[in-house]
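Thread: adenosine-5'-diphosphate complex, take 2
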Amino acid sequence: MLWLKLAWRNLWRNRTRTLVLLAVISGSLAFVAWMLNVSYGSYEKMIEDAVRMGSGHLSLHHPDYPQERLSELFFSGNEAMPLLENRAGIIKTLPRLYVSALARSSRDNRAVMILGVDFEGELENNPLLQPSKTVSGKIPASDTQNLAYIGNRLAENLRIDVGKKLVVMFQDLSGEITSKLYRVGGIFKSGVNQLDSGTIFVNRLSLATALGNSDALHEIAILLADREQLPEQLAQLQKACAGHKDIAVFSWETTSKQIADAIKMDSAQFKFMIFLLYVLVTIGTINLLLMSILERTREFGLLRAIGLDRRRIGGLIFCEATLLGIIGALAGLVLTIVLSLYSWHYGLDFSNMFGEAEVAGMLVSMKVNSTWEWDWMFGLAAGMVVVVILAAIYPVKKALRAAPAEAMRHH
Amino acid sequence: MSIVSTTDLKRVYESGATEVKAVNGVSLSIEAGEFAVLAGPSGSGKTTLLNLIGGLDRPTDGSVHLDGELLNDKSDDELTRARLFKIGFIFQAYNLVPVLSAYENVQFILQIQGVPDSKHEERIMPLFEELGLSGLAHRRPGELSGGQQQRVAVARAIVGHPSIILADEPTANLDSESAVALLNLMHRLNLEQKVTFLFSSHDKKVIDIAQRVISMRDGKICDDHKKTQ
Ligand SMILES: Nc1ncnc2c1ncn2[C@@H]1O[C@H](COP(=O)(O)OP(=O)(O)O)[C@@H](O)[C@H]1O
Ligand SMILES: [Mg+2]
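Output below.
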């Protein structure tokens, strides 16, 4: 007990210095741990947005479709839909068609991508198909066969407006050139150039019929209630699709590879930042411990003289460092929890700073709610304690170097 | 048997080209129960000799025996152990750990000696009584006068039942009244509890209290006489 008492009191001999060190330790920990919670929240958001705009958590395609993106690589909706029925954990399935086409107005023409969708289903889930993104007209209802919902830049380029006619030309499934007339029902602005200047949403059935097979699909996007279940669901669906040679299941990491890579990149950068910050904390701690030990050179000489061996003196200093590390880490955790509680509950809105960001051609909302990465938080806190203890090694060596008689002459 | 004996002890400091023979051939023995002073002017080698005897420093030449054991051969850790169990040190100043109370400073020795906690109080309190420290047990060194601090240092030196107490100018930072009072206390412990003392001083009033005066000059003993009671 006397040891702990001694270590504890030694810690507070220079109150300001100890408080500064504690502030550095807890502040750094809180900074990285909170940032981590926020960035995992933003990854979460990014993934969810990407998943909803893109191909879902999981998606069914013709096995070669994700690679080739060719219109003739379709599969049968009637064959695929039963595979997805009555599966716990799946909250939504969104069947889609993708067709590259030439869009023509009376004034101009442009290369576009036509998406055949079920508007109602998308409306609930796709962040792009939201009334807030509509700049004129409105999102077509599900049962309208011939209304198109187009990007604002495409509308400008084609010099058309809501109510105007639009002809799209493309190859049907048998390879014949075909064309279809739509009327502009609404115009959207997403902020993502590629979408705004080259995308047309139409009723899926109308497009399928024009392609020559009303049952054809290029994709069924599957939304899961919980992304944690993804590996399990993937395995189950793979089993279910095994007997169907035109149907294969993919995960968002394959279909939205760019987003997955962007996240990997970002989190690698983050880990590097954590590493750097911990190195800085180590250097700072070494310095302050060294100062406190050099000031006590004479006292360590005295302790050696009255019979403390090197092991006990080293132990005392490590004990001080451990206390410092533990207090700093606990304070840091509390601070992290307070900060994260705020950003988890209220969210952080980065849109003032960045607007809505475009990541790999996807629209990502900048309002982020942080998540709770407990493993990371405790791991970082434990790492901080270790760092502070390691930082004591050099000062301990220094404290033990002087022979007691020498140290005693020191003033 | 002598508690301490040295033969032709030498300690040479080399600072650059010059050599300082701080202790230059000292043969000395201290018997159990003695109350001896190393007297001599500043720079005569008193501190160096006490450090050699106490195993805080190693001789350039010659030997030191403590309780019949040769210190020269011992490792650093063995020397530390010898200091813990056989020697009580009192220094000129800054004897105490500032963040521990008077009581805790003394208890510290018992703790590292491995004396069970239950025995601490019965070993410390009578000593505090004897040294007039009873009311000051819970004060920190900063709240004690110089004389009180040195008395706590005496208590710490004695509590572990060492073979000898080595005190390097224990009164140098005290006014002459406190100096004499401290010495009388040490002398009483010597007489009543048969504790062996070897201390250094250059203060005549203090030297006069000693029962044996070993005078040093230039690292050598120039005179060594016992007083007859
Ligand atoms: N570490 C050292 N390095 C060099 N010279 C020293 C050292 N310690 C003591 N001396 C020299 O040794 C001599 C004896 O010193 P010391 O033992 O401290 O004498 P005293 O205690 O009697 O004043 C002095 O001349 C002193 O300058
Ligand atoms: Mg001296």
